[in-house]
Write a structure and sequence with these properties.
alpha/beta; Rossmann fold; Methionyl-tRNA Fmet Formyltransferase, Chain A, domain 2; seven-stranded antiparallel sheet; elongated
């Protein structure tokens, strides 16, 4: 099938690779423009653009380019912008969405599933509509959430989604007879930086879920500490305190405590929590966090 592919992050790359491996003719790849990244501020292409270049595919940044391409259908995987209805009327598109729709429509379905404590999530292959993630479902695949990080879960879903996408494109029945979404609608609003700020008032359960999203942090002595990994603890430290107990750094939150495993202090590199604690050179065996 002659296709246009729209995607931007690393999670979209498995679907693009799968389309090529399955023999589809990807006439054009549309991705978000190069962005300035890192301290140097140099322009960097998206992961999808890097993959498309590797595959020798034509790459563009404007949706208008699709109008000039003779394609049968589009495939959208985490493109990062709304597709106008006029374009969808001309080129029907499939969307690989990382949730079991209609649960977690929107920008951050993987993160929201983790925060909500969902036992399972999955991938829905839908027909794209101008409204947000409302299209009928061609196929869905379920995945256990367990204790996976958002990075781990997204990687798994991207592979499952790529396989499901190829299955739909290979089946006239699945392609032509999607079913309407059924169930309670929830929205996966974007995760903000403030939501990643860990505070002593939250439960350990919610704090550990937040840490699994990536980017979580708290403050000690007015300095920001990124929290990279942690686990539940049977020990107890008062709420709002951090202590070294039996070679483990224990953090006290609302009603219970957790073990800090790896951190990245402000202006420093990634290290174990124990190395961070000793670097603080504190005189007492407990300090406060916020």
């Amino acid at each position: 099938m002659r296709l246009v592919f729209l995607g931007t992050p690393e999670a979209a790359v498995p679907s693009l690779d799968a389309l090529i491996n399955a023999g589809h003719d990807v006439a054009l790849v549309i991705t978000r423009p190069d962005r300035r990244r890192g301290r140097g501020g140099e322009l960097s292409p998206s992961p999808v653009k890097i993959a498309a270049t590797r595959l020798g595919l034509r790459v563009g940044h404007r949706l208008a380019d699709i109008h000039e391409s003779d394609v049968e259908r589009g495939v959208v995987v985490a493109y990062g912008a709304i597709i106008p209805e006029l374009l969808l009327d001309k080129v029907p598109m499939l969307n690989v969405h990382f949730s079991l729709l209609p649960r977690w429509r929107g920008a951050a379905p993987v993160q929201r599933a983790i925060l909500a404590g969902d036992e399972e999530t999955g991938v829905s292959i839908i027909s794209l509509e101008a409204t947000l993630d409302t299209g009928p479902v061609h196929v869905e695949r379920r995945v256990r959430v367990d204790d996976k990080t958002a990075y781990e879960l997204t990687n798994e879903l991207s592979r499952v989604g790529a396989s499901a996408l190829i299955e739909v494109l290979a089946s006239p029945d699945l392609l032509e007879h999607p079913r309407a979404q059924v169930g309670d609608v929830t929205y996966a609003e974007k995760i903000t930086k403030d939501m990643l700020h860990l505070t002593p008032e939250a439960s350990t359960e919610m704090l550990l879920r937040t840490i699994r999203l990536g980017g979580a942090y708290f403050f000690v002595g007015g300095k920001r500490v990124a929290v990279l990994s942690a686990r539940a603890s049977d020990d107890h430290v008062p709420q709002g305190h951090v202590a070294l107990r039996d070679d483990e750094v224990i953090v006290g939150s609302h009603r219970d405590s957790w073990v800090l495993e790896a951190v990245r202090p402000e202006g420093s590199k990634t290290m174990t929590a124990k190395a961070w604690w000793h670097g603080l050179r504190v005189e007492s065996n407990e300090i406060e966090w916020s």
